[in-house]
Amino acid sequence: MTAEQKTRIAEFLDLAGAYLRSGYKSQTLTYQFADDESAAPMATEQAVPQAPLVETRPQAIAQSDKRSLAISNAEAGMDTLEAIAVDVAACSACPLCATRTNTVPGEGVSSPLVLVIGEGPGENEDKSGRPFVGEAGQLLDKMLASIDLSREKNCFIANVVKCRPPHNRDPLSEEIAVCASFLTRQIALLKPRVILCAGRVATQAMVKTTNSIKNLHGHFIECAKIPLFPMYHPSALLHDPTLKRPSWDDLKTLRARLDKLVALKA
Ligand code: URA
Q1: Of ligand 1's atoms, which has the minimum distance to the CA of residue 104?
Q2: Closest atom of ligand 1 to CA, residue 202
Q3: What local confidence, expressed as pLDDT, does residue 9 receive?
Q4: Which range (2-6, 58-62, 164-168) has the least confidence?
Q5: Residue 118: CB within 6 Å of ligand 1?
Q6: What is the pTM of this model?
Q7: Quick check: CB of 129 below 6 Å from ligand 1?
Q8: In the CATH scheme, what is the homologous superfamily, with its name and number, of domain 98-265?
Q9: pLDDT beyond 80 at 101
């Protein structure tokens, strides 16, 4: 057995122990084995300083350990979209959990051509648990349909945060950071050919930039080896109809790229 395989087993046992002992917060351990080809010292254990637990109810601690297990499942290629939705529903990692009605993990096909990423649920999405179902969502569906895309046929629709920010404010960078592992897991599973970012907040979060959506829209950016295409948020088009023309041009650019990708695969 290789050192890497033994390390995986040791990490799994550590997580399993953490899961069984509700109340225990898993430490990060570094394992080495005496017979490892490259290893001289034995089993060094690094006690990493513990972040204070914000939430101390046993239930919440068990949830944090479940999250560790879910992430290790994701690494082991055993993750599912349903498991992510369950983890999102159980999440209490940021204050948005206190004001949400429903979590909104996302919806669509499981092998999408396009993953659409918005900023976060609004009032209608919070009520229904589904992404982009309000006025902006209906416009998004029309925009997608104009280039032969839909959540029923070839898209998955998600958001950078899965709970509604109160009063439709922008999600805070800490909220986006805490929620990011869900989107990372979704992208790993969905393997979209293109990511379509709706609006400034989603684009800036995904590309890690402060550049404006005015500068970014309509140009492909490589994001973790997936072409990412920023566009104006449909709600911006509802407020400012002059954005409709450039958005239509952007949709045509996107369709041309998708046609090329599809032709390459055929
Ligand atoms: N706006 C978003 O960014 N996402 C939604 O799900 C709805 C509106």
Answers
A1: 6
A2: 3
A3: 52
A4: 58-62
A5: yes
A6: 0.75
A7: no
A8: Uracil-DNA glycosylase-like domain (3.40.470.10)
A9: yes
